Amino acid sequence: MPPMYSMPPLQTSKAPAHSYYGGDFGMTAAAMSPARAGPVPIAPDPVGLRQMNALKRMREEDDYSEFNQKRRKRAPSQSGPVELNEEEQLLLRLKEEENLPWKDIAVRFQTDLGKSYQVPALQMRFKRLRERMRTWTETDVQALEQAYDYWEKFQFDIIAAKVRTDSVTGAWPRE
């Protein structure tokens, strides 16, 4: 068994009087800090650490599997037409029908609606609007599910192959 290191027990002598407060309040070193009966182990308990790490891994695996199940049960798309507000209708018309550059679209938002938007904000809004309007066919959904199943089955093989090719080509330094 490895040696355990500890602090020696404290002596029970009188604590020195503090000059700032001008006196001795009768506190001994034992009163300020409890005396120890013997050595205090400070080495970690390896069995306890292993059990704690095993429990942590089990919780993480459960959380990961619940996450995947929740994601798989989500509906692939909303049904029915998407309702657009005035700003979204203007954004679609200016970009898709009139094919204006983004700077001109920002100027038109200012003049037509009196609202000032940065170009990146309009671009992100357009991107999200297009994603929201996308309709998923049954073929699209099946292709997405097949791709997901393929990834689930071969994800570690894909990663290992990429690591091998990058280490051979020198993309990663060898140590």
Give an account of the 3D structure.
The protein has 175 residues and is mainly alpha-helical. The chain has six helices and no strands. The protein has helices spanning 29-32, 46-73, 86-97, 102-113, 119-133, 138-169. Helix 3 packs antiparallel against helix 4 (102-113). It is elongated and about 80 Å long. It starts with 28 loop residues before the first helix and ends in a 6-residue tail after the last helix. Mean pLDDT is 76; it is low at 72-77.
Structural topology:
Elements (H helix, E strand, L loop, with lengths): L28 H4 L13 H28 L12 H12 L4 H12 L5 H15 L4 H32 L6
Helix pairs in contact: 3-4
Summarize the structure.
The chain is an all-alpha fold.
